[in-house]
Structure formats: structure tokens, C-alpha cells
Amino acid sequence: MRLARSAMMVRGSRGGDAIVDVAHNVQGDLDVRRGYLLFLALVIDRMHHYIRELRVLRKGMEAVTKQNRMAEEGKDRASKELKAREQEIIQLNAKIAKLELESEARVKEVKTAQANALALSKQTEGFLLEYDRLLEENQNLRAQLKSIDCQLSRSDSKKNT
């Protein structure tokens, strides 16, 4: 309807002003439609949110109802389960005690192994020091032997000449 009025105004007024007026009218029309669409989008979004909330609440209510039913049905079952759990706790406590003893034994074994490793490490250090000393002594003896060989070969060469 606005567009029809705007078209009539264009025919009756000057060209440039009329186009601007029509543009303003069209813009106003678009603004109203945008506002209406924005409002509808907001309403739809809120409805979607409330529907989702309603679903969650229904699921929660169903779960609570089911739990109540199960609780009423399982009162005598619970006492049997409690006795079974207590027996299981006793067995597990015994198993824990056994495992603690095994753990202590293994800790002792580890400490013994560490002490042996340390002793072997020190013994190895001692062997390395002894090896180095013997190697040095061997080199000294070889040097002395070489020196003696040189002296003997000189004396033999003097006797031969």
C-alpha cells in the first residue's frame, strides 16, 4: 500500500525528490519488516529454548519416577546386596594386607639389590684403579727391558768390533 502511494507521489512531484521520498518509504517499510522478523526470530528462539528445557525436565522427572519405583522394589534386595558388599569388603581388606606384605618383601629385595649394585660399583672402581696401576707398572717394566736390551746390544756390538 505504501508502495502504491509512493508511486503516485513520484508521478505528481519532481523526479529527484520523489525518488528520495520513495526510497525513504521503502526503507521504512523494510525497517518495519526487519523489526517484525527480528521479533518473530526472538519468539521462536525462546520457544525453542523452553521446549528444550521442557524435554530435559521431563527426562529428569522420568528418571526420578523410575528411581522411586526401583527403590520401592529393591528394599529387600538392598539388604542382601549390603551383606554381599560387606563380605566383599572383608575379602578385599584381606587381599590388601597380603599385597602390603608382598610389597614390603619386594621393597626389601630392591634395597638389597641396590646395595649389591653399589658394592659391585665400588668393586669395579677398585679393579679399574688396580688395572691402571698394573698397566703403568707394565709400561715401566717394558721401558726398563727395552733399555736393558739396548745396553746389551751396544755391549755386544763393542765386543764384536
From TrEMBL:
One of its GO terms (cellular component) is endoplasmic reticulum membrane. It is a multi-pass membrane protein. Residues 61-102 form a coiled coil. It comes from the Eukaryota. GO terms for biological process: endoplasmic reticulum to Golgi vesicle-mediated transport; intracellular protein transport; protein localization to endoplasmic reticulum exit site. It is found in: Endoplasmic reticulum membrane. InterPro entries: BAP29/BAP31. Keywords: Apoptosis, Coiled coil, Endoplasmic reticulum, ER-Golgi transport, Membrane, Protein transport, Transmembrane, Transmembrane helix, Transport. Gene3D superfamilies: 1.20.5.110. Its main location: endoplasmic reticulum. May play a role in anterograde transport of membrane proteins from the endoplasmic reticulum to the Golgi. Belongs to the BCAP29/BCAP31 family. This is Endoplasmic reticulum transmembrane protein. It comes from Colocasia esculenta.
